[in-house]
Design a protein that fits this description.
Elements: E1 4-8, E2 11-14, H1 20-26, E3 33-36, H2 49-58, E4 62-65, H3 75-85, E5 92-95, H4 100-114, H5 118-128, H6 135-146
Parallel strand pairs: 2-5, 3-4, 3-5
Antiparallel strand pairs: 1-2
Length: about 150
């Protein structure tokens, strides 16, 4: 999978957490907002959520932090992400540690916009290059879409 996956004109997923240097260059690449789905204290974070927010704001980027546990994404967190996303300047770069959470949230966003079922959303995720290798995450995506969470 590529380092960045372009979902559409307004949304991209980074398959890792951007470094300080990468954040400092995002505005020059056209991005307007960074959304971080990592929780504070996760292992191998180049920047804490607070430090990342400071770097992003200094680089003239809007910044949103929604802490999502890698093993326990919640429907209300997806709802919060989707609600906030509509008011953020784009294009938006969303990330977590590996692209699993951020990819799932981005796919859920476009799936809801396009009226996709859970299985259709999983197919779209694969088309985009996401291979989550997580039956639990895939089941979450299907439940969120098919049960109207």
């Amino acid at each position: 999978m590529a380092h960045r996956v372009r979902i559409n004109d307004g949304l991209s997923v980074d398959t890792g957490q951007p470094t300080r240097e990468e954040l400092e260059h995002l505005a020059g690449e056209g991005f307007k907002t960074v959304v971080n789905l990592r929780t504070a204290g996760e292992q191998n974070q180049p920047l804490s959520p607070e430090a990342e927010g400071e770097v992003a704001r200094k680089a003239s980027l809007d910044y949103l932090h929604i802490p999502v546990a890698s093993t326990d994404p919640r429907p209300e967190q997806v709802d919060q992400f989707r609600a906030k996303l509509s008011g953020l300047p784009g294009p938006v770069l969303v990330h977590c540690a590996s692209g699993k959470r951020s990819g799932a949230f981005a796919v859920l966003q476009i799936a809801r916009q396009e009226g996709l079922s859970g299985e259709a959303a999983l197919a779209r995720a694969k088309e985009l290059g996401f291979d989550w290798k997580s039956p639990a995450l895939e089941a979450f995506v299907v439940r969120y879409l098919d049960q109207g969470m």
